[in-house]
Amino acid sequence: MIDHAKPEGGIPVSEAIATAKAYVQEVFSDTPIHDVMLEEVAKSEDQNYWLITIGFSRKEHKKTSADSLTEHMAGITSMSALMLRRDQLLERDYKLVKIDRHTGDVVEMRIRDLGESLQ
Q1: What is the DSSP letter of 7?
Q2: Per-residue pLDDT reduced to its tens digit, 50-96
Q3: Burial of 77: CB neighbours in 10 Å, binned 0-12, 13-18, 19+
Q4: With contact defined as beta carbons under 8 Å apart, do 19 and 56 qualify?
C-alpha cells in the first residue's frame, strides 16, 4: 500500500516519486531517454530521505572497427547502414535519487548498482 500521508513537516511518497522522475528527465534532457519508470522506493535508515530508483532506456552506440571503415567509405549503402543500426541497442540505466522528506529537495542522484542495498 502506498503511504500517501505526509510525514510530519514533509512530503508524501507520491510527490517524491514525481520529483525524482522530473529530475532525471531534466538532467538527461540533452540525451533522448525512454520508458522512464519507478523501480524502487525506500526510506533511509534515519527516515529523513526518500530513496527512489528510477529506470530508463537510452540508445547506446557501440562503435566497432566496421563502423570506422564504413565512415571512411564514400557514400553509405543500405546494407552498411543496416549494419550500423544493428549495433545501436537500448540499454537500461538505473539512478538512485535521494530526496529530503521534509523539504522535497533532491539531495543527490547516483548510479544505482542493482547488486547493492538501497541504504
Answers
A1: P
A2: 999 999 998 765 555 455 555 545 455 555 554 555 445 678 899 99
A3: exposed
A4: no
Cα angle: 17, vertex 18, 19; to 5 degrees = 90
Q: What angle do CA 73, 75, 76 make, to 5 degrees?
A: 90
Model pTM?
Answer: 0.69
Q: Structural domain boundaries of the chain?
A: 13-58+90-111
Tens of pLDDT along 4-52? Answer: 545 566 899 999 999 999 999 999 999 899 999 999 999 999 999 999 9
Amino acid at 90: L
How many degrees, rounded to 5, is the angle at CA 58 between CA 38 and CA 12? 20
Structurally, what CATH architecture does the domain formed by 13-58+90-111 represent? Roll (3.10)
